[in-house]
């Protein structure tokens, strides 16, 4: 075993917490049994760069049960759970990650994960995929999986420049991922992270959401449910119109800056909140990012204009501004629901990680049929994940009668027939 983690002695607590997550992931547990019986991944090596949480551990356990050898690095230095790392190492997975590791260590750990010479890579943010493309390593890689919006953007950019070496499935874009994990999971964990870091009161507060994609919708929905007034900032006309139709106020960031008590970015874009916005904000405004990379809030610009900086609570830093006001940055501008909270709950990650598990199985079997490029999750995989989840919840669906099937495929029936 090769690994670089904080403390192997933390393994027992990690196992306890992983077991709790597993209780709420029935779909993944069923797939684990199937993989174990088939030995679907025997002889295959998988390198992964993921948020190292209890839910991720359940996913990797399913792949390992199918015979895979796995090497894992973090996809965010501040979302790593050291006890989970220890438990995974004890279970025979190569883990290279420590909470709070600096950038050189983070990059070194990615290289160590790739040293396994993987057949497949699993990514959350595309750092692993990019590292492969920046080095001559990875000659055995036949396919990859990307979990999050920002990583899919990077993979598509590689493909557009004709540099992508292998097929990548965009798990983020499939309905059983973004309808549920992004909307309900991110919606909940973002609010959870804000509350844990600040203990603020949402009822009556004005919360500004930058971006009304699936994550932004979920954040807005949860905030409204707790009594906040929600303002949306958007660059997309259709999404802005949808926010209006959902009963929300839509403003530019320049207009929203003086009004908000809490600001949350969920765009996948850099430089969404900038120095001119910080200077226009109320004294005491809170700044949180729910996007994958720490670029949505211009933290460097904030530090440049600040006259003072201090940590006032765990995951909460105060920045004094030259106008005498102060703003507060959560989680160093990193993904607040992963850093200050515990990420999305296991029950919703059961869907996203089942997608990943089945896509891994699909890619290792269909690799020779796919040219380099970014692909959607096959619809039958998406449908199966949804059906398995409904079965686990003991929810039954109606079915069409033979007459209804005939009607559905007929042109003869109409007003008179």
From TrEMBL:
CDD domains assigned: SAHH
Binding-site positions, substrate: 53, 124, 147, 177, 181
GO molecular function, one term: adenosylhomocysteinase activity
Coiled-coil region: none
Cofactor binding remark: Binds 1 NAD(+) per subunit.
Any one GO CC term of the record: cytosol
Enzyme class: hydrolase
Keyword Transcription regulation: no
Requisite cofactors: NAD(+)
Metabolic or biological pathway: Amino-acid biosynthesis; L-homocysteine biosynthesis; L-homocysteine from S-adenosyl-L-homocysteine: step 1/1
Positions contributing to NAD(+) binding: 213-218, 234, 290-292
InterPro entries, per the entry: Adenosylhomocyst_ase-like_sf (IPR042172), Adenosylhomocysteinase-like (IPR000043), Ado_hCys_hydrolase_NAD-bd (IPR015878), NAD(P)-bd_dom_sf (IPR036291)
Listed GO biological process terms: one-carbon metabolic process; S-adenosylmethionine cycle
Recorded catalytic activity of this chain's protein: S-adenosyl-L-homocysteine + H2O = L-homocysteine + adenosine
Family: Belongs to the adenosylhomocysteinase family.
PANTHER family documented for this protein: ADENOSYLHOMOCYSTEINASE (PTHR23420:SF0)
Name of this chain's protein: Adenosylhomocysteinase
Naturally occurring in which organism (per UniProt): Reticulibacter mediterranei
């Amino acid at each position: 075993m090769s690994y670089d983690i904080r403390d192997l002695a933390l393994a027992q607590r990690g196992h306890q917490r992983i077991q709790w997550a597993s209780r709420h992931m029935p779909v993944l547990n069923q797939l684990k049994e199937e993989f174990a019986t088939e030995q679907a991944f025997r002889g295959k090596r998988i390198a992964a760069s993921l948020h190292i949480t209890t839910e991720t551990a359940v996913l990797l356990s399913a792949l390992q049960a199918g015979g895979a050898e796995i090497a894992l690095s973090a996809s965010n230095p501040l979302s790593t759970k050291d006890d989970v790392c220890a438990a995974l190492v004890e279970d025979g997975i190569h883990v290279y990650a420590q909470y709070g590791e600096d950038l050189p260590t983070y990059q070194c750990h990615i290289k160590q994960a790739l040293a396994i010479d993987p057949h497949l890579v699993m990514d959350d943010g595309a750092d692993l995929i990019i590292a492969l493309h920046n080095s001559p390593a990875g000659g055995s890689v036949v396919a990859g999986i990307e979990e999050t919006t920002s990583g899919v953007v990077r993979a598509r950019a590689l493909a557009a420049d004709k540099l992508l070496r292998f097929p990548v499935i965009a798990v983020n874009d499939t309905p059983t991922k973004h309808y549920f994990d992004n909307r309900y999971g991110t919606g909940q964990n973002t609010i959870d992270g804000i509350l844990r870091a600040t203990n603020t009161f949402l009822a009556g507060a004005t919360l500004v959401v930058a971006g009304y994609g699936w994550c932004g919708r979920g954040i807005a929905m949860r905030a409204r449910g707790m009594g906040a007034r929600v303002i949306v900032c958007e660059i997309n006309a259709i999404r802005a119109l949808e926010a209006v139709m959902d009963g929300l106020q839509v403003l530019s960031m320049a207009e929203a800056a003086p009004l908000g008590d809490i600001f949350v970015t969920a765009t996948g874009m850099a430089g969404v909140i900038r120095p001119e916005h910080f200077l226009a904000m109320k004294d005491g405004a809170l700044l949180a990012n729910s996007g994958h990379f720490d670029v949505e809030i211009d933290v460097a610009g904030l530090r440049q204009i600040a006259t003072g900086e201090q940590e006032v609570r765990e995951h909460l830093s105060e920045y004094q501004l030259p106008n005498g006001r102060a703003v507060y940055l959560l989680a160093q501008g990193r993904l607040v629901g992963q850093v200050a909270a515990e990420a999305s709950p296991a029950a919703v990650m059961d869907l996203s990680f089942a997608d990943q598990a089945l896509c891994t199985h699909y890619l290792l079997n269909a690799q020779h049929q796919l040219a380099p490029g970014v692909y959607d999750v096959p619809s039958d995989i998406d449908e199966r994940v949804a059906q398995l989840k409904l079965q686990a919840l003991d929810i039954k669906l109606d079915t069409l009668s033979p007459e209804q099937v005939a009607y559905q495929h007929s042109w003869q029936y109409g007003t008179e027939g």
